[in-house]
Amino acid sequence: MSTYYAALFADVGILLLGAISVYIILATGQLSLGNAGFMAIGAYVASYLTVKIGLPLMVALLLAAVVAGAVGVVIGFPALRLKGIYLAMATLGFGEMVRSFFLNLESMGGAGGFHGMAHVSPVYVWGWAGSILLLVTLLERSRVWLEMCAVHDDETVAGFIGLNTTVIKVSAFGFGAAVAAIAGGLFAHHHIYIEPGNFGFERSIDFVLAVILGGSTVAIGALVGAALLVFLPETLRFFADWRLAAFGVLLVLVLLVRRQGLLDRAMFMRSIFKARRA
Amino acid sequence: MKGPSASPLLRLINVSKHFGGIKALDGVSCTVERGQIVGIIGPNGAGKTTLFNVITGAYRASGGDVVFEGESIVRLPPHKIARLGIARTFQNIRLFAGMSVWEHLLVAQPHTEVALRRLLPVGWADPAACRRADEVLALLGLEDVRWRIARTLPYGTQRKVEMARALTANPKLLLLDEPVAGMNTDEAADVRALLLRLRENGLTILLIEHDMTFVMNLCDYLYVLDFGEAIADGPPAVVRHMPRVLDAYLGEED
Questions:
Q1: A143 and B106 in contact by Cβ < 8 A?
Q2: Which helix (H) or strand (E) segment is B52 a member of?
Q3: Given Cys at both, which of A224, A270, B194, B200 links A214, Cβ 3.0 to 4.6 Å?
Q4: What is the rounded distance in angstroms from the CA atom of residue B224 to the CA atom of residue B238?
Q5: Which chain B residues are closer than 8 Å to A141 by Cβ?
Q6: pLDDT attached to residue A166
Q7: Distance from CA of B48 to the nearest CA of A (A)
Q8: How far is the CA of B173 from the CAs of A107, B35, B37, B196, B200, in angstroms?
Q9: Does residue A57 sit within a domain?
Q10: Which residues of chain B does A159 touch, with a Cβ-Cβ cutoff of 8 Å?
Q11: B84: Cβ–Cβ under 8 A, 6 or more apart, which residues?
Q12: Distance, CA of B175 to CA of B207 (rounded, Å)
């Protein structure tokens, strides 16, 4: 595998984690356009811990996830009062807020960025991405996930069947933020240089796009979406300068033909609960 | 017919619900005895569904008290009321859009299990929940549609799924909002047989229904609501002949 493709491979892994972070929050019916903000928190906290404190990367990533998760829970509470487009706008504002926070944080390099992290390979990135994908795929078969789906489908009825919708929605925000933070920490240690501009609005949109394209009702959809988002523009190279336009056309076509994304939950309905008889 | 007992399952004491100047419920009191099927009838707009919404916590009562098993539940949020053992169905069917029948039956089961188990795949970690879901599937004859997305099923079947979702929670009190609305005679007869069987097993049922034949043949006791007030109550045989009830339904004679 050439260095170039190895880099793309790592990008898919990081995008996959970002997409999963959006997917988890979206599973409770909340659209977050600010997950690059959580990713930034993860990237900066993890880099600080490895470079300045000297912690091992794995510990740093987990701590970064805890910090971002806590921020996610804090964001989750005001998010309860917002729905649809208003929540999207508010989270977008949060993402930009985090970006400008790190822009002004001189102790972490400010606009000049931060470096000094030890490089990790695409394989390391995929160790995390694959494990988290597996974890979420297992979680999808659990009661808690069904409860999240219930909140997504009809929050009022979810309350009537005994679900604490506040806890479910806020926890989803926290969990999603933690996954985004791991994506950020891996990004920082793969690219060994971060600056606030890495975590702009476009990255949040990429996460959402990967989920919508691959299928927003099943975790494996995030993998398909992330892979397509990274590799499809590459395979369209024969369009030369028009390749991104061609990619855009393909995206629109996919969404017109399959609004639910390439994969959907119904395809896996049987397998999800097949193992139920011991 | 049992007489009023010292500890009824549910008591509404002088319950009011005002929306601005509109009195949707105005001082309604009623009692639901354990093991009975109690009906609420009344013309459209009488406040029947509002009453359900107050009992289940969707609306906060403007006045009065709701007592379930001796404890006031009038200030509790819906999920806490549900966990005490009150389950309901809806006048306009409200199923979870993306879920199969089977998933409806798993998600509505009570939260007795430890947190860790709830995070693991249901099939491996919670055979008891699967058994309970199987039981309820069989009870309602829904085995053949278990993997179907519930919303894609015929109307009468969707009503059954809604009832199944309410039953998997093992409620003490089941609230049914027009359980046979839009059903044909055969389907309604099925529901009637089912409700009688549930009562045999000790379940208490409070239901709203417009189908008078259904109500009169099924209920142990009736409350009649009109313009937010309980204007009459009694066993069906008595209520059906009360002049006030006839007035409310048929209009007064000039």
A1: yes
A2: helix B48-55
A3: A224
A4: 12
A5: 121-123
A6: 95
A7: 17
A8: 61, 9, 10, 14, 14
A9: yes
A10: 57, 77-79, 82
A11: B68, B69, B71, B73, B76, B172
A12: 6
A152 touches chain B (CB under 8 A): yes
Question: What separation in angstroms does the CA of A94 have from each of A20, A87, A170, A173, B247?
Answer: 19, 10, 16, 13, 60
Closest-CA residue of chain B to A157: B94
- B110: Cβ contacts below 8 Å, ≥ 6 apart: A162, B83, B169, B170
Task: Please report whether residue A233 resides in a domain.
Answer: no
Q: Which structure tokens are listed for B5? A: 């007992």
**Could you tell me if residue A148 is inside a domain?**
yes
Q: How far apart are CA A180 and CA A68, in angstroms?
A: 8
pTM: 0.91
Number of domain units in chain A: 1
3-state secondary structure at position A81: coil
Neighboring chain B residues of A163 at a CB cutoff of 8 Å? 79, 107
Contact yes or no for A254/A58 (Cβ under 8 A): no
Instruction: Report all structural domains of chain B as residue ranges with CATH numbers, in order of start.
Output: 10-250 (3.40.50.300)
CA separation, residue A223 to residues A33, A151, A266, B38 (Å):
19, 24, 17, 53
In sequence order, the β-bridge partners of residue B149 are B100
Q: How far is CA A251 from the centre of its chain?
A: 19
Determine whether the interchain pair B94/A141 forms a contact, defined as Cβ–Cβ distance below 8 Å: no
Measured in angstroms, the CA of B117 and the nearest CA of chain A are apart by 8
Query: What span, in angstroms and rounded, lies between the C-alpha atoms of A22 and A38?
Result: 11
Q: Cα separation of B213 and B180, whole Å?
A: 11
- DSSP conformational letter for A52: I
Of A141, A144, A146, the CB nearest to B123: A141
The answer to whether A204 and A214 are in contact (CB under 8 A) is: no
Q: Is residue A21 included in any domain, yes or no? A: yes
What pLDDT digit, counting tens, does each position of B94-128 carry?
999 989 999 999 999 987 656 778 888 888 888 88
- Could you tell me the residue range of the domain that residue A190 belongs to? 3-200
pLDDT bracket for residue A249 (50, 70, 90): confident
Residues of chain A contacting residue B90, judged by C-beta atoms under 8 Å apart? 157
The verdict on B21 touching A (C-beta cutoff 8 Å) is: no
Check whether B251 has a pLDDT greater than 90: no
Element (H, E) at B30: strand B22-32
Is the distance from CB of A44 to CB of A194 less than 8 angstroms?
yes
What's the token pair of residue B13?
Answer: 């004491």
Which of B197, B203, B200, B244 is closest to B223 using CA atoms? B244
Listed in order, strand segments (DSSP E) in chain A are 114-115, 193-194
Residue A18 has pLDDT above 70, yes or no: yes
